[in-house]
Amino acid sequence: MKNIAVGSLLFAVTLSTLAPAFAQTETIGSLRLEYDNESLRPKTPAQKDFVNEYAAARIASGRAALDALTHSSYGSCQDTPEQRYFTENGRLIKKDRIPEDAKIIFTPIEDDAALPFAGREFLTNPVKATVVMAILWKQTIQPSGDKPMRLVVNSAVENLADDSGKLRIVRGCLTEFGRNKVADRMKKNGGPSKN
User: Which residues pair with 160 in a beta bridge?
Assistant: First the structure.
């Protein structure tokens, strides 16, 4: 399967490999993630439950466990070949374990404008995201062949909203512009065209 390469489109689910000098604070648009802020650690039952479900979903085989964490509002997205293609290719994440010493925070958000793609021309959110879960962890890659040992800093960011008392991932619906862009990508990748 080929990923859709549209800038940083997959920010909400893409695992980023960052420079080792990465600070313990990350800025995405107007959203500031302070990984060392103890007051942002998971504290409510809903937050703790989501962390456990998400960690398990990342290492489960297939996509079902991760898809089960999607907010029910995603069902209101227009069912088009482009949306289905985007769904199939847009939730591919590196399936690795989140270590116990990872820094996990929940940051409330008051304005969807703080999130990339919320209100942008490519995607719209079917429900307002109210909190962001962000995870930061370091990983040592052992030397292999001519590649030296290296330290990699990983992060994952998910936009969440309440869904019948549980936190669930808010996934975007393609706009007309987004559908056209995905249709172009599908055509390039040999998938069905928009027609």
Answer: 131, 169
pLDDT means per 10 residues, the chain with 195 residues, are 32 34 72 92 97 92 87 93 84 75 92 61 87 90 86 87 95 91 89 51
Q: How far apart are CA 133 and CA 108, in angstroms?
A: 9
**CA 33, 38, 40, 45: dihedral to nearest 10 degrees?**
150
| In the block, residue with structure tokens 């307002």 | 128
Closest CA to 30 of 94, 110, 126, 101: 110
Parallel, antiparallel or unpaired: strands 31-34 and 25-28: antiparallel
Which of helix, strand or coil describes residue 185? Answer: helix
Q: For residue 159, give the 3-state DSSP assignment.
A: strand
Which residues are paired to 141 by β-bridges? 150
List the end-to-end C-alpha distance of the chain, in Å, as a whole number: 21
Q: What is the Cα–Cα distance from 102 to 100, expressed in whole angstroms? A: 6
CA angle 56, 61, 67 (to 5 degrees): 65
CA torsion angle for 60, 62, 66, 72 (degrees, to 10)? -140
127: closest CA among 87, 168, 66, 165?
168
Quickly list H helices, 69-152: 81-90
